[in-house]
């Protein structure tokens, strides 16, 4: 029926045109136009070698409308035929955001009010001032009312002269208004997925940014059903547009305009890929947001609690716990230290969360531990862990504030908590990934509450020791063994430093690794000098502190990222790209996708224990499972958005696409070989 109506409208248009010609009047003759079009130049004296914008200022007659560049289910766009001086060229027109008009179940993208497509003319270089530039345009277009369509034509002209490019103030104001109505290009690309008769389009759009009357107008034809209802969902820093897929389909890319307000839009380009369905909406009821926040808060707190057993955090927690075992603190002092430690942990977690939200609002796809994608941050962390290792080994005592080895008051406890949280960032454990991923789709106050939950979970053991005297009584009695235990705790800290040095080498190459190790050597020398002074009963010394500061700043400033190299996949796997994933799924292959980073401890443990094993390789080979590896060590915006699409704030992320399944199965963040073989 829709195509019948379209055919009927076309016949009516042709009959109207024939009647006009039989009466002796040309189509679109002066006085008969239902669209009054005027050619307006921004400057009538454009400079040689410059560009000048020309507007087709169009005023529809009341009850009539013109068509957008994609007219929708019926109609056709205007055709422009320019006659220009030699060497002058004209761009394709850019249109303002259109409106929608449904007639007989046909969706039309139209303009019912005054509008102005803009065309850029390129003026040849080398023309003398005063050279005439006659501009002529022959345009044919369709104009319709609610009952009839009429093809019209118009011949327009402009007389320009090469000059200084001056623009009259009133003309500038008109063009400023016309440009505001033109959709702004969106630099970041979107992703679309068409399957099972539906199409989902993921468009980067900062959470919290103004959004009103959201609607997606496709420029590319065939991929969307124009008249089908659209649902627009806010999912973190992107919008998900879902509607019925077009009958003809297509591989893309998909180009269109996202309306974000009255006469405001963004021109979007989206490539084919995977877009996970989401139930989060920008208009979610308050109760739903509260429930989601509470669940994410609990998951983050549990994930933070598990982080305490990581090799970089456990030594710090152990020494703080043993400081309470010395027994000379009263109940009030123990609680103050516990609260100060918790405050330091929560402050760093909330600060990192706020930085993530701010960067994402600016359009950058980042997640938890985003700072580790920068080799300068790795250098700072490397020097910090080397210093802690030497401190635990007894080379020197950390000067005020006292971080680990003494109960030096609330200030030292706060600094200790901040240090523990900062060093814990390379780790992501069970429950934590899903919780932080959920935080990124919540309103920012709720998101910050989830990051605070992570800090609270990390601080729970020491908080419990400070507030529960019975737990402190169960700690071992102080003695000489504590010094030996302290030296033993330096081993996991040295392992952390070794892992960071390896990450630095991966990010910055051999030269960067050499620079980092050299900085660690000089830092160790400065710490040795300070330790020798302390052994003689003197203060650590400003000279040693200044030397440490110079080494740290200098090392971070001099290191740079090595040239990008293609990701090296494990034997039997391929580097991840959305195009390759889409191709494998279309071939009905089962696909296992895993996202990792060199600085992610959990990722590396899973790879050695579960993924890169003979049993897993054999299971995947026997069942022809394709394996795609996404390396997020150095950060990748496209990969980051794909990870976010599956409600994760970072790595690890493990996905299994069964043949024919519309959505992937998201696997736990702790894997076993049996779990993968069972797929």
TrEMBL record:
PANTHER family: SUPPRESSION OF COPPER SENSITIVITY PROTEIN (PTHR32234:SF3), THIOL:DISULFIDE INTERCHANGE PROTEIN DSBD (PTHR32234). Residues 556-679 form the Thioredoxin domain. Keywords: Cell membrane, Cytochrome c-type biogenesis, Membrane, Signal, Transmembrane, Transmembrane helix. Residues 1-22 form the signal peptide. The chain crosses the membrane at residues 289-317, 338-358, 378-398, 448-472, 484-504, 510-530, 537-559. The keyword Iron-sulfur does not apply. InterPro entries: Cyt_c_assmbl_TM_dom (IPR003834), DsbD_gamma (IPR035671), DsbDN (IPR028250), Thioredoxin-like_sf (IPR036249), Thioredoxin_domain (IPR013766). It comes from Sphingomonas glacialis. Its main location: membrane. This is Thiol:disulfide interchange protein. It comes from the Bacteria. GO terms for molecular function: protein-disulfide reductase activity. GO terms for biological process: cell redox homeostasis; cytochrome complex assembly. It is a multi-pass membrane protein. It is found in: Cell membrane. Gene3D superfamilies: Glutaredoxin (3.40.30.10).
